[in-house]
Amino acid sequence: MNLNPGSSAANAPTADTPRMDMTPAVPACHANGGPRLLLVDDEPRLLSSLYELLRDRDYQLVTATCGSEALAQLNRLKFDLILLDLRLPDMSGHQIMDFINERGIEGDVIVMSGDVGIEAAIGALKRGAYDYLRKPYSREELLKTVQNALSQRRLAQDNARIASQLENSEKMYRYLVDSSPDIIYTLNHEGRFTFVNDRVQQLLGFSREELIGKHYSLLVHDEDRERARYVFSERRGDTRASRSVELRLKCGGDAMGGGHERTFSNTLMTIALNAIGVHQPEQEPRQREYFGIYGVARDITDRKRAEEVISYQAYHDILTDLPNRMLFKDRLGLAVIQAKRKLSELAVMFVDLDRFKLVNDTLGHVKGDELLQQVALRLKECLRRGDTLARQGGDEFTIVLPELRDRQDAKAIADKFLESLQQPFDLDGHEVHISASIGIAIYPGDGESIDELLRHADIAMYQVKALGKNGHSFYHNSMLDVSHQKIALEQSLRKALEQNELEMYYQPQVDVASGRIIGAEGLMRWNHPQRGLLSAGEFLPFAEENGLMLPISDWMLGALCRDLLLWNAAGGDAIRLSLNLSPQYLDRGDFFEKMRGALTRYGISPAQIEVEITENICIRNPQYAIEQLNKLCQLGVSVAIDDFGTGYSSLSYLHRFPIHTIKIDQSFVKEIHDEHGHYPVILAIISIARGLGLHLVAEGVETALQARYLQSHGCTTMQGYFYHRPISLSNFIGVLQQQAGDSAPLLHAPAPQLADVAIQA
């Protein structure tokens, strides 16, 4: 009778056979938490008795009454324990065990047999049976054997699982250690390598086999060996067992470093093991024994190089490779300390390049940078050993000259600077000439602190610029008073806009044929509360230097438009207004919009406005200037070249730029002393204007002789003291009204006698 409902030949149980639950086809020990057992016996009553004996012990029980059923169940399910009868109708238990071994089927086998021969038992044990029970066996013996077998199986499975975990853990550890970007190593108590990972081959070029058993000093740079000996021999415990140190290690031929030493940050930990041994009664049974060192060496060569680069760049100018102002102040401070100790003098120089801005604007910043690099090389060649040349910023350089014998040493070096800069500079085919203004302060007479010496050298340098540039000057206390006056003037100028102290004056332009006023040039004045009326030349240069030209130009544009409304109402609507335009104002992107907005807001015809520019505007940024001036011309505003002939005169820009008027500079007019003389520059300018069809205005006409000469050679529009001085708006309106009412024009009008400079850079 078949007692296995899960087999292919399963029949319903009889009245003598208990019903057995064989349903779950899942791995052993996991279906309901209990182990799975296969019971194999061809005697139904013994099989039923065995089933009843085990059914209440949380086991999953499956039965088989013959060998074929047993093999079918073994192929279908996994079993923790197989209780096997040796004598079956279709095959022996030994054959079933051979099947289990051949297939590698897991599960322990307890053989139950009534055979009294020793051969059956030996055959079963040889095939790996856990135990051999002879029938009849006692109930207790069976239960104990089954329990022991299952317990041993559980222990074996736990051990196998732990061993597998340890093996995987060791593989992972090995992988992580060998894949680490750092060198991981251990040293024994003698400082010899007991372990090192594969990274040492890539970083240092030494194989693991070359290092195992070797002393760590084999790798350490000679200069770092003493520090390494101290660190590696130190015995630390507890929380102080870990420490870090930077060492340079040698590289082999195959290393990434190519045979050079590399810098490593070594994190070390002293290894101490708890040792238990046999001791004499009076000795401690437990002690800590020093075992060695576990270390991680990280390659920080790239980081150290980056730190060196960052440190260098923090104290050096990237463009010229000279010390920057931070390093210069540090060296100047050391030089001052040394001079104080030796009771000697030192010099501080402040060097500012003349005309550098012009080169930078005309040739571009790239060429300007090349010029600064060439200047730095020339200045360095003029210095003594121990002198320091630094770039302060822009086109400014500073020099400290320690251990001066007298001032002549500083003067000699300053003369060398000026001489070396006189030679032309070649900027990719462009020959450039520059000079320098040099201020010199001497310690301790001109100051004892770093800032004081630099400030006084800077003041002396500006004194040179004020006197015409291209020279050097020693600081003197009198210069400080002038400097303070400039600062006070700058501060007052900032307040002048807020307090409405600025005013526009107008110098008429006369048509000498009719004697009538046909135009006027707008000139700025400052009603200074203490110094009285100041001309443009006395304050506009400060505005240019201190960034005030833009707000001042904005004010001027509004003031001119308001004044134009008044003089138009007085009958001057046919008179053209000339306004001087600062290059800074033209470079500003919104200048055109400001001009158009002002003319629209005040209802003024653009044809009544003429913008005066200097030749420098034409060479600063030619293409941009052309675009801006073309916009003005399209609006209806005309353009004049002011001070023609004093700058970089070129006929080419008269063709390229939308020019309507040329103004002869007063420096040429002043040279006219003979009515019948020959003045080729003036004649050339008049010829150019006539040939190009341009309107011509002569500035600075002060005598009747000058007026007759200019008129006789074709210049018919003039301005100057011979006709009118610059006058206030009210006086100008009075002149216009008198001209409108009189048939004979008024050629002279009283006004303050002030020198004047146009509003320009």
Automatic annotation (TrEMBL):
What organism does this protein naturally occur in? Rugamonas rubra
Matches recorded under Gene3D superfamilies = 3.30.70.270, 3.40.50.2300, EAL domain, PAS domain
Among CDD domains, the record links this protein to: EAL, GGDEF, PAS
Cite a single GO MF annotation: catalytic activity
Q: What is this protein called?
A: PAS domain S-box-containing protein/diguanylate cyclase (GGDEF) domain-containing protein
- Modified positions (4-aspartylphosphate) are D85
State the InterPro entries in the record.
Biofilm_reg_signaling, CheY-like_superfamily, EAL_dom, EAL_sf, GGDEF_dom, Nucleotide_cyclase, PAS, PAS-like_dom_sf
The domain of life is: Bacteria
| Domain PAS residues, every copy | 169-229
Residue ranges annotated for the EAL domain, each copy included: 486-740
In residue numbers, the region (Disordered) covers 1-27
Ranges of compositional bias, category Polar residues? 1-11
Please state every residue range assigned to the domain named GGDEF: 344-477
Q: Which residues form the Response regulatory domain?
A: 36-150
UniProt entry tagged with the keyword Acetylation? no
Q: Which UniProt keywords apply?
A: Phosphoprotein
**GO terms for biological process, alphabetical:** phosphorelay signal transduction system; regulation of DNA-templated transcription
